[in-house]
């Protein structure tokens, strides 16, 4: 069983918060993209639970990048971001890579990673972490569809997020949609990006499908993440030949490692 020293975690977060002066006003955030933002009447609630799923197993990296982008939109420039994940996630998809995080616009020094041996520990650590005021965001990543991630458990995460106004992002890898208390549910797949020139990689592009929205409307967009400005921009599909996705297999429910 993973043991998380929350006293030390609170101390670390307080220390990190002292380094920044910018704060997020209000209790909502947006995409910075008018085509998406008009779907949400008053923005997306910060003190809420938002769920992101990978459409295919090969889209795990895209879903992870999208969650990081949302966390950056929802948090202040210096506030710490907690990443609470099950060990099996690292076995299947690897661990966060500092240069990759920096490319997305996330200073690796802001990221605090908590690894747990079971989904029960992930939910416990995430619930406790959401109770720490001053946290920029909490990313919660249990593997697949564990039985413990039910409506009751997700409501507890939601309530803790509401009490401290800390956004909670539920990253679902190797999973299929299931009933929970998430305010929004996103289905994410990778899309080709425009080169920045000289064959250099461009900004990441996501095919984002909003398949659940408690405010009502849903939608689908091709969104480019502007890493320097921390905003999303709607883009048109890239024309020309693309790599076949045939090597990707469909996401399937798999038993969580305990």
Give a short summary of the structure.
This protein has 7 helices and 11 strands. Helices cover 28% and strands 24% of the residues.
Description:
It contains seven helices and eleven strands. The chain has a nine-stranded mixed β-sheet, sandwiched between helices. A two-stranded antiparallel ribbon has the order 1-2. The longest helix has 15 residues, at 60-74. The chain has a single domain, classed as 3-Layer(aba) Sandwich (Rossmann fold). Helix 6 runs parallel beside helix 7. The chain is globular, with a radius of gyration of 17 Å. The model is unreliable at 18-26 and 241-258 (pLDDT under 50). The protein is of the alpha/beta class.
Describe how the helices and strands are arranged.
Layout: H1 6-17, E1 28-29, H2 34-37, E2 44-45, E3 49-54, H3 60-74, E4 81-86, H4 87-93, H5 98-104, E5 111-116, H6 119-130, E6 137-141, H7 151-164, E7 168-172, E8 184-191, E9 205-213, E10 219-226, E11 231-234
Parallel strand pairs: 3-7, 3-8, 4-5, 4-6, 6-7
Antiparallel strand pairs: 1-2, 8-9, 9-10, 10-11
Helix pairs in contact: 6-7
Tally of individual helices = 7
The CATH topology: Rossmann fold
Order of helices and strands: HEHEEHEHHEHEHEEEEE
Strand content: 15-25%
Instruction: Calculate Rg over CA atoms.
Output: 17 Å
Tally the structural domains.
1
Number of strands: 11
**Helical content band:** 25-40%
Q: Note the gap between the termini.
A: 9 Å
* Mean pLDDT rating: 85
